[in-house]
UniProtKB/TrEMBL annotation:
InterPro entries: AA_ABC_transptr_permease_3TM (IPR010065), ArtM/GltK/GlnP/TcyL/YhdX-like (IPR043429), MetI-like (IPR000515), MetI-like_sf (IPR035906). Belongs to the binding-protein-dependent transport system permease family. It comes from Deinococcus aquiradiocola. One of its GO terms (biological process) is amino acid transport. This is Amino acid ABC transporter permease.
Length: 221
């Protein structure tokens, strides 16, 4: 019982430091999501409508990202790119790695959502005189967004957890902050438990927001 109380005390003591680092964790996740969305859209459109060489290149990018661990991608970007003359700060390297990773997964979500829109919607838009670009913007993408919303929300929640991996390149986000606390106190259980609870709290809030958005869209639809 006494040992359990000590764990709770160390977790509580670490909480202010972890909450301060949470801002950087959320910043990484939001930046990767905001940058990854347009990247994913471009890649999805390239795979669906671009000439074959460009479509194949987009497919290769998606295959490589989905087929390699994010941790390896972080190492390649942060430690590998300087060998070819591109030196990035830990924050820049982390954001770039998370963005490229998110863009690949988001492109598959967006591509599937676009393909889910019935062909008749496109044909009806063309019959009204809309161009392909106008049809995509005004007809296809709004409907695809409804379909893609659950997966987009899951991607953002996954990004929050994936930010823990940038701790390996010395970014002081939530997990790295817990490690620094442990280095001072030599008590690992409490700080790691507190970090896990913070990740859980963030994910739970995002899930709640996602469900409310889905409910609102279903009512408006």
């Amino acid at each position: 019982m006494e040992q359990f109380q000590l764990v709770l005390q160390s977790a509580w003591a670490a909480l202010p430091t972890l909450l301060a680092a949470t801002r950087l964790t959320l910043g990484f996740a939001l930046a990767a999501m905001l940058l990854g969305l347009p990247l994913g859209l471009l890649v999805a459109l390239a795979r669906l409508y671009a000439p074959r060489p460009l479509a194949a290149l987009a497919g290769l990018y998606v295959s490589f990202i989905r087929g390699t661990p994010l941790l390896v991608q972080i190492f390649v970007i942060y430690y590998g790119l300087p060998s070819v003359g591109l030196v990035l700060t830990p924050v820049q390297g982390g954001v770039l790695a998370l963005t490229l990773n998110a863009g690949a997964y988001l492109s598959e979500t967006i591509r599937a959502a676009i393909q889910s829109v019935p062909r008749g919607q496109r044909e009806a838009a063309y019959s009204l005189g809309l161009s392909p670009a106008q049809t995509m913007q005004a007809v296809i993408l709004p409907q695809a967004a409804r379909v893609a919303l659950p997966s987009l929300g899951n991607t953002l929640i996954g990004l929050v957890k994936d930010t823990s991996l940038v701790s390996v390149i010395t970014v002081v986000e939530l997990l790295r902050s817990a490690q620094l606390v442990i280095a001072r106190t030599f008590e690992p259980f409490g700080p790691y438990l507190a970090a896990a609870l913070v990740y859980w709290a963030i994910s739970s809030v995002l899930e709640l927001v996602q469900r409310r958005l889905e409910t609102r869209l279903s009512r408006s639809g």
